């Protein structure tokens, strides 16, 4: 037993040596956990941000001007005045996502209590902005109108109930909190599968794997060495990325224990590296591995709940995705990092990920020898 | 500088180095036109580099190389003379395409040299008849024997009647009969075309005897040159091999002496290795066919045969790497297949290729293996020192193995193989490519192990003189043992003078038997008729057009055939796209529905329950078990069981009736900001409608809450369902990932496998090469696009509202950019792994996040905004969404078309610039 552990350790160290001599891979790993995270987190916002808005002002009154001035950055770009006949063309080309149409005599009708119509056109193909934008725009416009007719005297709410809505865990709904960590998770999935799988295929093509198999080593030891060595590289990168990029550069406060998150990451890495080995045993060449990788990694990444809400997927797909550790990983990563959950809350998901990882590892071990003899 | 016309090649002060390693140093050499010239010397001494420079395949570093009357540094001259040069690189069929048949390979090369179909057919007909390949013209190159591959390589080289034929080790690893036939063929060709210059490199010294001149090369220097007779005479040796040894500098042959092999003492114990009817099949191909032998302890037993005759497969079965299809083998009396870990400690194995880790030093490699074999740690240092001394590795102990010469590497491999003092050694072509002196030194070690330590040695080789040193040998061919005995007995049995002749006799017998039996595998027989090999008229017009459709088409056709013959890849590419479309079309959704919420109702009055019913009735929310305490709420929020928690304080109902504006608290899990903001809107709406209801019930009227009506119009997608926006976006994603990965690996694969040489030495230029490779993938991507459109119309039921032709045109431009992106990546990376990595990272983030699928490109900031503005996926999403949901036509999409076209130009231009037309 001790001998086995020593073998796994020695082979893993060798794996690290190999990686050290591959500057291209190292550069890509560094890029994936620094610049890539930073651009994604700062460049794309999940909430309403810099929305392109235009106003068709046929009233040209004080009120319409005030409405136009009420759309402020960072939520909106400065509104552009366009003519009524330009609406279709500018919305068709996607120049503006929102166009507010203020009809003639709007101010006068408001004052006269005629309840005039004001139209907000929304490009409903901009999925993430359209719904939220609608809410924002209606409340901004209502607020301006109410303020205008009350001569800017703050109005006491005469609502019969006082609905206090608060955001838990991310009080200002800052999207970089979300994007940064989710991008790290996507890159973990992508890099660990490619790194382990491609390394195995390369060893197979160069014949070094046969050399190992004629020594007193079992496939399990060879695989475990790859799992821990490649897993460790990614794990360290994740730890550094979390501390330096997410916490320091992006200023994201992390609610829970980073150690617990890294432990969860290690479990997930066990799965993803085992999956990489498994795919490498299925593919006969690197081009085949490339395609397999795309087919498997994309759903793991895009349907994990890290990009879009998982509750809205069709029930069948949701059930299938319960077998994907990426779903559980995203879920417990959010629980730990944003909501401060402890081991008492996330342990069932830890167990599920570990179980699935073990199954993949077993599949891969069964196919390992067979796939090597199938090379010729 | 004027070149005398009778020199085909002039080298002046040519030097070349790879990093710190010097391949050769200031070489001067002239080769007369019409002569045949052989470079001889072991592997890795710079022969191949020199030939590459002469052929124009490599970039010249220092000195001048003039080939066929002009400087090979000049692109114009290279373009002019490349149709007159033929270059066959080292390695069996290195520049051939293994999935293509003989005829297809030949047509490919014919097209590269611009020959029309009729001319090609005539030439190919003549070539295959003369070389005896005619009966196998429809067999894939990958399924040919080594000798036949080399003949095909020669045919491909001769298809355009070259004036200069350059062959790099054309017979290495080929059986002796095929080798003899190959040289006869070359002689015939030279007789027909006396003006043709032939330059050959070879590691078999005896082959050089028939050449007009030879050059002996070692360690980057010319040792001697002249006619074979004069070289032998000057060196005072009988054979060229002895001459080579004599000419080596003193320090290299120190300690070299004729090898003495003490006789084997038979002790009559049980045999170390026994094989009975060992058979291995791969599909319908039998690699090893009922092979039987017995090897006694301490014996040196040799397998002699060409590449691919089953030597390696037999050894793999003995080591347990491969299970036998039939028959059995025993090591020390135990079945080989089930021998397990303890047996592996008694066996040392050295595989054909150098399979140690090049990133470790000599000492680290030894140390790693010592520990993997679990030598007692205190003894490891001593054992390593002992081996370093014994194998002459002291002076390189701390060098990285990457930089060592092949001979030293092989000694290290052997040291590693015996570090655990095995009782048996299995060595697969351990001396392939090693110079004669190093080879003798290696054999001294083997003999010492066998005679002094009683180690059983099972070795394979294709060198005759090595086989002669074994105690017994088996002659192998096409998976079968032809004869097995001591070398001397084999020679006398076949009435031959040398072992080589004995082997040839055996091979001829085997062929004759096969012909009689007329078996299906009789294909290896070569019947050469004596028709002319080359055409008599020569048609080098010397013109080199800027872009030739025929050459580009040659690459397109080749790529298409390879794609079609890899059904796994093709199926993945087509069905995979469809599958992902289904999964993502339904799965990636921005609809926020089925949200889990729970409430903590401290009031429990009809009023509070009415409020909560409003939520329960909403299609957006799914009620969970009520919250019992604040701690319960916190726990359930933290675990993500609920995304919304409502708390109604006690006294809510009472205060409501008293119109005292009671408070309700709603907590939204904001870990996913987009979802949180949407929930915010839902909750507000529910609160609003509760108030309206309340007022209607209490007052009978609905109070106007606002002095104006704000009418929200969702355009293009009235129901505001995510699927209408997602399906076009998913199309855009799938049309970038799969095509770009396919293309990227396609080009790099040629680099890794070596067929990129055809770009270096034939008239094809970079643009023809790149576009030719791109076309089939563009077609494939358009087929994928058709699948996607059909799925969108049928399964997703999404009508295409706009101009369909505008969508197709956009998709066409888009897939040119995405395949172009793959080409760009593959033009500058050199390994498949880097191509896969680069393409994955380069396409996924920009296309998923920055192309308008999530957020409009206008809303992006910083680097993301820049990427979003130029990345083609964004343009195509505009086109797809525009045509499918916004009913647009051509005119509205002109800006997108223009940007995509510009991207195509930039990508293609960059790829052409980054791809190297010559090797470094």
UniProtKB/TrEMBL annotation, chain A:
InterPro entries: ABC-2_transporter_component, ABC2_TM, ABC2_TM_bact-type. GO terms for molecular function: ABC-type transporter activity. The keyword Metal-binding does not apply. It is found in: Cell membrane. It is a multi-pass membrane protein. Residues 130-371 form the ABC transmembrane type-2 domain. The chain crosses the membrane at residues 24-41, 184-201, 227-248, 260-282, 289-306, 345-366. This is ABC transmembrane type-2 domain-containing protein. It comes from Thalassospira alkalitolerans.
UniProtKB/TrEMBL annotation, chain B:
CDD domains: ABC_DR_subfamily_A. Residues 514-541 are annotated as: Disordered. It is a multi-pass membrane protein. The keyword Cell membrane does not apply. The chain crosses the membrane at residues 570-592, 723-748, 775-797, 804-825, 831-850, 862-885, 897-915. Keywords: ATP-binding, Membrane, Nucleotide-binding, Transmembrane, Transmembrane helix. It holds the Pfam family ABC_tran. Gene3D superfamilies: abc type-2 transporter like domain, P-loop containing nucleotide triphosphate hydrolases. GO terms for molecular function: ABC-type transporter activity; ATP binding; ATP hydrolysis activity. Residues 9-244, 273-503 form the ABC transporter domain. Residues 688-918 form the ABC transmembrane type-2 domain. NCBIfam families: ABC2_perm_RbbA. This is Multidrug ABC transporter ATP-binding protein. It comes from Thalassospira alkalitolerans.
